[in-house]
Design a protein that fits this description.
Layout: H1 18-25, H2 31-37, H3 42-48, H4 51-60, E1 64-71, E2 79-83, E3 93-94, E4 97-103, E5 109-116, E6 119-126, E7 131-138, E8 143-146, E9 153-160, E10 167-173, E11 184-188, E12 197-200, E13 213-215, E14 218-221, E15 235-240, E16 245-250, E17 260-263, E18 269-274, E19 280-288, E20 293-301, E21 317-323, E22 326-333, E23 336-341, E24 346-351, E25 355-364, H5 373-379, E26 388-389
Parallel strand pairs: 3-24
Antiparallel strand pairs: 1-2, 1-25, 2-4, 4-26, 5-6, 6-7, 7-8, 9-10, 10-11, 11-12, 13-14, 14-15, 15-16, 17-18, 18-19, 19-20, 21-22, 22-23, 23-24
């Protein structure tokens, strides 16, 4: 760890080298407990606030699905929650949802447009008349600011630009063109540019459906069937975050409908999709990235439910969760969420009576890293705290 000695004892009072204390002990704590360590003394505060430690701590955090819950008996905007599979005790027990954020000012809708390194790009909307406000935030540190410069654009991704270290938004203009032949734009958060910068178009027949998945430092999107009858035309769109350019790669000839992406084991790419009857999910893994060779890894048959589903099978949504080498499927059915393993065994469920459920393809991953660009955004924003609120008892 930069700035920390590699040998010798430290003034922490533990008789343990700081590097071992940081990278072997502190890094394993929850975010709340790590923040509490800063209150012990100045030496602990320095160690527990080191940026290298916070980045290492972030890398250890699980990537959790984001769930939007809309109360059917309330006019308030939906809430954003994270589903933490680690709270499931197994055996079909109850799983808990963790509140991430909610809109407070009479807004009609809130959405997650992009995520990266613990940062979320949120859109808060009013319908009559239609007004959309865009916010970048870190729910863990509760830093937040408005991004009015991207008004009139749609966010396709959020990424860290390796050469500069800037966090940038990949944008395109609002268009009815499903193939996104319009040019794309880049906007660096906290920069002085008044408008997003055009970087040109994408390869032919590129599609953007689900949230991007980061593999080898590049963003990957699955194809949106519009429909595309020829499977050979289906491709995965790749955005090189260093060169800021696009290319296409092969997708498995597997899914007739929409295909979704996830980060598989060993930092490679995975894809999944429903069968025709929406009773099973096929999961494929890219076992050789350079040759673009795919293989089917799992065929997950979902358990039969004892009660009829509200909205029928067509209302089902699903996402794949990876935890180390373990793979799970989280799916919504009516007003409930179910977690199963790759054998289709029910591990946990969450009954959400009176709520409409939407599973985002974006993920949230806790980060205690604070970013200086928020100081610039705050100066140009309204009172963001009156628009977005956080759960009580945060870090």
């Amino acid at each position: 760890m930069a700035g920390l000695p590699r040998t010798g004892l430290t003034p922490l009072g533990l008789g343990v080298p700081e590097e071992i204390f940081s990278l072997e002990i502190l890094v394993r704590l929850s975010s709340k407990d790590l923040v509490r360590c800063r209150a012990v003394c100045r030496a602990w505060r320095r160690v527990a606030s080191a940026r290298d430690l916070l980045q290492a701590h972030h890398r250890r955090q699980p990537s959790l699905p984001i769930v939007l819950l809309s109360n059917n008996h309330s006019s308030s905007a939906p809430d954003l929650h994270a589903f933490d599979h680690r709270t499931a005790g197994g055996g079909g027990g109850e799983a808990r949802l963790q509140l991430v954020a909610r809109a407070n000012d009479g807004s009609d809708a809130v959405g997650v447009e992009a995520t990266c390194d613990g940062l979320l790009l949120l859109s808060v909307c009013n319908f009559y008349p239609f007004v959309q406000r865009d916010f970048i935030c870190n729910p863990t540190t509760r830093q937040i600011g408005r991004v009015p410069e991207i008004h009139g654009f749609l966010a396709t991704g959020l990424y860290r630009h390796p050469p500069t270290g800037e966090y940038r938004l990949l944008l395109h203009t609002k268009s009815e063109d499903l193939l996104h032949k319009d040019p794309f734009y880049v906007f660096a958060l906290g920069c002085s540019q008044p408008r997003p910068r055009c970087i040109g178009g994408t390869p032919e027949l590129s599609g953007f459906f689900c949230a991007p998945v980061v593999v080898r430092g590049n963003l990957h999107w699955s194809w949106w069937p519009v429909p595309v009858k020829d499977h050979a035309l289906r491709r995965i769109t790749v955005f090189d975050t260093t060169a800021e350019s696009f290319r296409l790669m092969r997708s498995p000839m597997a899914h007739k409908g929409r295909a979704y992406l996830y980060e598989a084991d060993h930092g490679t790419l995975g894809t999944y999709g429903w069968n025709d009857s929406k009773t099973a999910i096929d999961i494929w893994v890219l076992h050789d990235y350079d040759s673009e060779a795919w293989s089917r890894k799992y065929h997950v048959k979902l358990p039969k439910l004892p009660v009829a589903e509200i909205g029928g099978l067509e209302s089902r949504q699903a996402t794949v969760i990876r935890d180390g080498r373990d793979v799970f499927v989280l799916y919504s059915s009516g007003q409930a969420l179910f977690l199963v393993d790759t054998k289709g065994t029910l591990l946990a469920s969450s009954q959400l009576d009176g709520c409409t459920i939407f599973l985002f393809t974006q993920r949230i991953k806790e980060s205690l890293v604070r970013h200086s660009f928020f100081s610039v955004l705050q100066g140009a924003s309204d009172d963001c705290s009156s628009i977005i609120s956080w759960p009580e008892g945060g870090v």
